[in-house]
């Protein structure tokens, strides 16, 4: 990502931060598909050609959007316990993606090396630094946990959308499917499904997310190299 234009000559009318903020607001309200140079320019009360003085193309606009929302993360002081700090980092990422549901889609295109993104990377890498992992292992570990968090949130949002489209609550949807479920159970062919119906508590999203974090951290800890001495 290009650095901001040097501060010489007349003060620019717009900053790239202001442009990114306008684009993020559009994406949050209408989806990432609604974001275009022309649409952002309209929101700012100018023409698309004016924005090209600050942003080369749509890909660069997307990079600015990623870096802008990364700046929303306050990055709390670390406790010194890597499990506690990494868990907090994963929770913050979930909150960020729930707020900006389009974010994983843009981040999948590649890392935007803006100042806020780099600040977050430094913070995240420092959490697992000193655990005996190589630099590659540190990057891969953090990538795995964030990819899991992205996938969890996508599933979470898909379930919400399904309920909204159905116009029913989760309980009402279960009731509506009752006759079919009884038919399936009556065949006796699906014992594991029968266990799910009779035994599963169906924990809420927060509980499932916390359980997932514990599983991830346990897996990471189990694969750490032995400490010297």
Keywords:
12 helices; Arc Repressor Mutant, subunit A; flat; 2 domains; mainly alpha; single chain; 229 residues; Tetracycline Repressor, domain 2
Summarize the structure.
The chain is mainly α and 229 residues long. The protein has twelve helices and no strands.
Structural features, described:
It contains 12 helices and no strands. With 229 residues, it is mainly alpha-helical. It is flat, with a radius of gyration of 23 Å.
Question: How many individual domains?
Answer: 2
Radius of gyration: 23 Å
H/E topology pattern:
HHHHHHHHHHHH
- Say which CATH homologous superfamily of the largest domain is assigned: Tetracycline Repressor, domain 2
Low-confidence stretches: none
Helix content: 55-70%
What's the number of extended β-strand segments? 0
Please report which band the strand proportion falls in: under 5%, 5-15%, 15-25%, 25-35%, 35-45% or over 45%: under 5%
The count of helical stretches stands at 12
């Amino acid at each position: 990502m290009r650095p901001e234009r040097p501060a010489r000559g007349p003060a620019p009318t717009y900053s790239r931060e202001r442009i990114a903020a306008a684009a993020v607001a559009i994406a949050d309200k209408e989806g990432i598909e609604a974001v275009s140079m022309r649409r952002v320019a309209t929101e700012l009360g100018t023409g698309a050609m004016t924005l090209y003085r600050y942003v080369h193309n749509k890909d660069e606009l997307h990079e600015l959007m990623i870096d802008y929302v990364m700046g929303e993360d306050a990055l709390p002081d670390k406790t010194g316990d890597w499990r506690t700090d990494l868990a907090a980092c994963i929770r913050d990422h979930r909150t960020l993606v729930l707020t900006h549901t389009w974010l994983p889609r843009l981040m999948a295109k590649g890392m935007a090396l803006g100042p806020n993104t780099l600040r977050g990377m430094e913070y995240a890498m420092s959490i697992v630094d000193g655990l005996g992992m190589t630099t590659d292992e540190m990057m891969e570990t953090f990538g795995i946990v964030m990819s899991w968090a992205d996938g969890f949130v996508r599933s979470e949002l898909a379930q919400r959308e399904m309920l909204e489209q159905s116009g029913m609550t989760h309980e009402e949807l279960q009731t509506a499917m009752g006759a079919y479920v009884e038919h399936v159970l009556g065949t006796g062919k699906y014992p594991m499904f029968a266990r799910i119906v009779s035994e599963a508590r169906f924990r809420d999203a927060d509980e499932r997310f916390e359980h997932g974090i514990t599983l991830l951290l346990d897996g990471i800890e189990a694969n750490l190299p032995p400490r010297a001495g």
